[in-house]
Amino acid sequence: MKKAYxxxxxxxxxxxxxxxxxxxxxxxxxxxxxxxxxxxxxMVILGQRFAEVYMSQHPGTSIQVTGGGSGTGIAALIxxxxxxxxxxxxxxxxxxxxxxxxxxxxxxxxxxxxxxxxVYLHQSNPVNELTLAQLKAIYTGxxxxxxxxxxxxxxxVLYSRENSSxxxxxxxxxxxxxxxxxxxxxxxxxxAAVVNAVSKDENAIGYGGIAYVQNIKAVRIKKDDASPxxxxxxxxxxxxxxxxxxxxxxxxxxxxxxxxxVDFIRWVLSEPGQAxxxxxxxxxxxxxxxxxxxxxxxxxxx
Length: 302
Prior knowledge:
Elements: H1 2-29, E1 34-39, H2 44-57, E2 62-66, H3 70-79, E3 84-87, H4 93-103, E4 107-121, E5 129-131, H5 132-140, E6 157-161, H6 166-174, E7 186-188, H7 191-199, E8 204-209, E9 217-218, E10 220-222, H8 234-239, E11 245-253, H9 259-269, H10 271-279, H11 287-299
Parallel strand pairs: 1-2, 1-3, 5-10, 6-7, 6-8
Antiparallel strand pairs: 3-11, 4-8, 4-9, 4-11
């Protein structure tokens, strides 16, 4: 009986300790004027510009933005080392469960922009369009020569992102249908590195955010042989016509007690924040969706 009592007492003290630690962490957040944002390399340029404009309008605040990949940002959120995780993919159920177990609250998902994944080719490549099936065949290694998809007789050189990248995860799920990448695919850290590699190799192919298209060609994409070839433009991404479109997200462990983090997220959803999205060549959320997201965010604090 005594042993059972001690076990119960130990468990109770453990729970109280965890609660006090959580309270202390959250109370400490209340006076902070610094916000940590970490995650998606696709979103680094966007996040840094968000931070620059916000800080210029809110003197005395500090928004620190770093990359590392969506998975890295979400891991930092779970570990309590960042206020906001930037992610170019939805959070996995297992990650949501870890947030729930550690913080006793649900993760809050906040879409902040729209993006389309462009397929990059060297400017001299004569191929102008590809179907999703052709893209899958290329990246799984079934097709290895450009002449199989209307190009010249030359080997296809594959460039991809690292597996911690949300861009990698999205491409694998939505283009490869969760099949493995070809062993010949060269993995690079960051979309800028992929663009740089493709710009220097006339036989190369890569993928990444539309905002990174510079000194390379972005091909038109077809859902299937019978569908029209769609250019990766703002209108086509927002309308849903472009086949490889996605949302870009902020994630928090519940509603932050850090008031600057809360205000920063509100600002990102506001007109000035969405103007930044357009400035860096991503695509602002449609007005109705932005209002719905804002209302959901506000409701999470009640």
